[in-house]
Design brief:
Elements (H helix, E strand, L loop, with lengths): L5 H4 L1 H9 L16 H13 L9 H13 L5
Helix pairs in contact: 3-4
């Protein structure tokens, strides 16, 4: 599967895929329902801005992101 990025659709790549009888599944370039990382980022944003939290220091912001990341529930 590929997302129609230029390297995936240039003639040489298309010819190589065809010569090996590979079936290509189309994959939307920006499809959050097919990209789990989009859901992870949504969760992290919700955590770091809980109760309208604002950050005055970049380091404090980074630590909040790191904390949200390390406390993700893998289930």
């Amino acid at each position: 599967m590929h997302d129609n990025a230029a390297v995936h659709v240039i003639r040489s790549t298309s010819d190589w895929i065809a010569s090996r009888n590979i079936t290509v599944l189309e994959w939307p370039a920006r499809s959050p329902d097919l990209s789990p990382m989009e859901n992870v980022w949504a969760f992290i944003v919700k955590k770091i801005y809980d109760e309208a939290k604002q950050y005055n220091l970049v380091e404090e912001f980074k630590l909040s992101i790191f904390d949200a990341w390390t406390n993700l529930d893998p289930a």
